Structures are given as C-alpha cells and as structure tokens.
Amino acid sequence: MAAKILVVEDEPALRETLEYNLIHQGYEVRVAGDGIQAVESARGFRPDLILLDVMLPGMDGFEVCRILRQETNVPILMLTAREAEIDRVIGLEIGADDYITKPFSMRELQARLKALLRRVRLDQEDTAQEKEAGAEIMEFGDLKLDLSRHELSKDGRPLSLKPKEFELFVYLARHKGKALTRELVMETVWGWDYTGGSRTVDVHIRWLREKIEPDPANPVRLVTVRGAGYRFEG
To answer: What domains sit in the chain, N to C, each tagged with a CATH number?
Structure first.
C-alpha cells in the first residue's frame, strides 16, 4: 500500500507543487493550509508521515507538533524558512524527527522522506520480532544483550560501551544476517543532522570488534560486506 503523507503548508504554490510531486512519486497525499486544519487532518487521515511548515496561520508548526506528539508517534519532517539554529533545536526537542530548510530541492526532500519511512518500517519490524520472541534479552554465543538493562555482556561480564557503540550494536543485532550500508546505519543511529561522515561508522565498528571479536583483526561476527557495508553474524 502507498504511504500516506500529510502536507501542511500555507503557501498555495508550494503546497500544490509538493502535492503534485508526491502523488507522482506514488504517495497518497492530503494537504492542509493552517495549523488547526493540520491537527484535524492528522487525526482523520492518520498519515504515515507529516510534512509540517513552521510558519502557519492560526497555530504555528511548533504548536501543531506539540499537540500531535501527545497523540501519535507519526514521523514529522519540519519545513522551515528559518535558518536560526535555535528554531531547529526547538523543533527536534518538541518531537520533530527531521527538518529541511527552504528553499530545498525535491530530490533532497524525497530522500529525507524515504529515509524516515524506511526507519519507521524497520522499527516496526523490530518491534514485531521482539514481541514475537519476547526479546528483552538476545543471546549470541558468549554475548548477551539485555535491552531492559541497556547492557551488553561477554562471558557474563558487562562490556563498557560508549552510547553510540551500544546503539550501533543493538541496530546490527536486530538485523542479524542482513547487509547494512554505511549510509543506512548513519541515518538510523546518528541521524540526518550528523555531519561527521560515514567514516564514523567504520571507527565505531572497529571499537566494537575490539570488544566482541575473538580476533579483531579477523572478524567473524561483525563482517565487512564488500561494496555494501557491514553484517552482524551473531
């Protein structure tokens, strides 16, 4: 089924352009021109993703985001003409998942949309798998991942992991056996606004290998997939 996207934009020309292009990309689209209509449409349409302009009549995008975050976890991509960092920070702190500054290209917007929707789909798959398996605890030989304790242990001894090392391991473990590109790992674990580059992924993989591999120089758990990225073999 086509993903449903709610476009909230008060500028008619941009709203129509977004609607046309997104429909052309195969999405089911509904539009709203002000904050009040946005909240009503979100409740009735139940979109898979919301494109939300900050500057709206009646109720601004920040207030719309606050209201919707109390009711739903639908991903929200903020559209803003503001370049001040504080506005981006506010948007993320109140629950927006990403932001894009006007003017933007449709190609960049489509990439952001696909990344957010892919992240949601993977999260849903992870949740379903964990519910099916009752997976608060995942074991891989001498490794034990306890999600409720936020702890990874080896041979019964907790490993000292940096926060991003732990997030990275959890993400890889949840997709055991699947080749994951550096770009996908970067988007999911570090987020779109991270500017450190994919080399960061390589560094964290090396750190994890030093802690979980029998021989870090010849990894058998966190293996490199040539031309693709990395795969966790468990």
So the answer is: 4-120 (3.40.50.2300), 136-232 (1.10.10.10)
